């Protein structure tokens, strides 16, 4: 079955914006997430995770600190799914709570293997 890399992009968070969810909201979110995870356990190859804020950008000229703070979008996380086609991968990802929120997007690309 083909595998798909899901790359979560979002706009850089502005300092002081947005509030933290309450403990009850967090509990509800984890219950939904765990239900999604159980439903699609056969399709989740690597749950991935949230990426740290720093890193390096490697080019043919060398390496620099990154990602760039002036970027309009940042890659915030990833996961790898298996699905029969990209439509099924999109549906699995769409049902994951919190993956696509206002101001964010999910890029889904098939991983080509020789």
TrEMBL record:
Do you know which SUPFAM superfamilies this protein is assigned to? Answer: Dimeric alpha+beta barrel (SSF54909)
Task: List, for all copies, the residue spans of the domain called YCII-related.
Answer: 24-110
**Signal peptide limits:** none
Q: Which Pfam families match?
A: YCII
**Domain of life from the UniProt record:** Bacteria
Family from the record? Belongs to the YciI family.
Protein name according to UniProt: Transcription initiation protein
Q: Which species is this UniProt entry from?
A: Sulfurifustis variabilis
Organism phylogeny: Bacteria, Pseudomonadati, Pseudomonadota, Gammaproteobacteria, Acidiferrobacterales
